[in-house]
Design goal:
Layout (H helix, E strand, L loop, with lengths): L2 H36 L13 H17 L9 H30 L3 H6 L2 H8 L19 H16 L4 H21 L6 H4 L5 H14 L6 H21 L4 H18 L7 H11 L1 H22 L7 H38 L1
């Protein structure tokens, strides 16, 4: 097996985890829909375990940035090239999803959302800048975009660090984020500085350090790696039921254990199920952004048609899940993938 093949199969493990993270967030919102509208009992406490999918995404993001940028470290022009490609990857779908969210708010008269919407909030959302809503929450127009505000902050810092060699870059970003997290815990900072100094930013560092270890040849025996993944998922479930700990410890550390176990075990053969999860991992960005819009749209349509959802509550929930996934995959195939490839080709040519 060539080095390229081994690398691609290691990335397959990451893509599968991205699928798990995205599906966890979908489960969270579908469960919330069923609980708030229908009073359905959830198999997990408030489906909040799905919220840990965000922490898994952050760790994976840190891993992917180091893994995929190996040829850029200490190269002239690397920061601009990296950041341009990140913009091509993130911006088009997010701006489209934000516009779709506004349309849903207006079309289906989501009064609570419309009351929060201002031109300043919309501009800040499109610029990936944390901005307080009227109720004080640091949420953009597309509510799930709060994670992208962290992602873009990380990308900017990481881009600047690309002027350094790989190990120096990883340690420099980690030291900076650790300092910011300490400052955020010690001082009562105003927004948006409090947002950027939240300890959750250290989850990106977990992923970077795992990627650094992988790039430098670290591997785990399969048994130990499997136990690490199992322990990570177990800790996520336990943390969901107990609570009370900071998010970084409650979900961030277990997410890091899962990612480390998955990638440091080395490559393995995959079958049809693996290919399905890799595909869903490829589509995870669309799944993350679009599923919430699909839920908004279908909920608004059901209310407009005055359908009796209480007559078949689980069918209502299942319809939301299927529609959300179908819409997300369709957007990935028809919009995200072709647009991203086209824009990144332009970025490559201009380099």
């Amino acid at each position: 097996m060539t080095t390229s093949e081994r690398s691609s199969r290691s990335v397959a493990s990451i893509q599968m985890l991205r699928a798990v993270a995205a599906l966890g967030v979908v489960a969270l919102h579908i469960g919330h829909e069923g609980a708030t509208r229908l009073g359905l009992r959830n198999p997990l406490p408030d489906f909040s375990l799905g919220a840990a999918g965000v922490d898994l995404f952050f760790v994976i993001s840190g891993f992917i940035m180091v893994y995929a940028s190996d040829a850029l470290f200490a190269r002239a022009g690397a920061p601009a090239y990296f950041f341009t490609r990140r913009l091509a990857r993130i911006v088009p779908l997010y701006w489209a999803a934000t516009a779709a969210a506004v349309v849903c708010f207006v079309l289906f008269r989501y009064a609570g959302a419309l009351e929060q919407l201002t031109w300043q909030m919309l501009a800040a959302s499109l610029a990936f800048l944390p901005w307080p809503r009227a109720d004080g929450l640091m949420l953009p127009v597309h509510l799930l975009g709060w994670t992208l505000n962290y992602e873009m902050f990380f990308y900017l810092v990481f881009a600047l660090a690309l002027t350094l060699k790989r190990r120096d870059a990883v340690f420099a970003v980690t030291a900076l984020f650790l300092a910011l997290a300490v400052v955020g815990r010690v001082f009562a900072l105003p927004q948006p500085f409090a947002f950027w100094c939240d300890p959750v930013i250290l989850e990106f560092c977990f992923g970077m350090l795992i990627a650094l270890a992988w790039r430098e040849g670290a591997r785990l025996p399969r048994g130990a790696a499997a136990l690490l993944v199992i322990a990570g998922f177990g800790a996520l479930a336990l943390g969901t039921m107990t609570g009370g700990w900071p998010r970084l410890l409650l979900w961030g550390v277990p997410a890091a254990a899962i990612v480390a176990g998955a990638v440091l075990a080395g490559p393995r053969e995959g079958g049809a199920i693996t290919r399905v999860f890799v595909f869903l991992g490829d589509a995870s960005y669309s799944i993350y952004l679009v599923h919430w819009l699909a839920i908004l749209a279908l909920t608004g349509l059901v209310a407009y048609l005055r359908l009796d959802i209480a007559a078949a509550p689980w069918a209502y929930v299942a319809a939301h899940a299927l529609f959300a996934l179908a819409a997300s995959v369709a957007v990935y195939l028809a919009f995200e993938r072709p647009v991203t490839r086209a824009l990144q080709r332009v970025a490559r040519i201009e380099r």
